[in-house]
Amino acid sequence: MARGSKAKYTGKQKRMAEHIEEGYEDKGTREKTAEARAWATVNKLTGGGMKGGSGSKAKAARQRPAARKNARKAGKIGGKRRAATAKKTSTSSRRKAAPTRAKRTTTGRKATRTGTAGKRSTARKSTARKSTARKSTAKRGSRK
Questions:
Q1: Do the beta carbons of residue 6 and residue 21 sit within 8 Å?
Q2: For 37, how many CA atoms within 13 A lie in the half-sphere containing its CB?
Q3: Cα(126)–Cα(4) distance, rounded to whole angstroms?
Q4: Above 70 in pLDDT, residue 67?
């Protein structure tokens, strides 16, 4: 059979390809490209030509959509599991952060001091306090 022959495709498959091709052409795709994409889609959905013959894979092709359906089901289950674990981790992190938030509100610390600039400014202030404390003790010792 010549390459590109559609003799092994059923009427339903041919109609399917035609509708898909029209959809692509409506979107502005070139005619040749639209046809190629349409047949590629039909092949993916149905597994190629389904008309029987010697050494035909028609039975296997007919069973493919069922396998695809099972894969879809498995994907949905996996997605639900992923969402559940993400939800669980977000709530646990909130729980961990709650005591810290409570401390901040009770001590009256500003929320703006949490960044690196805030840390630097508090470090500068603490070193400045230490140096003034040293000076005052040094003065007391010299007065005696």
A1: no
A2: 14
A3: 82
A4: no
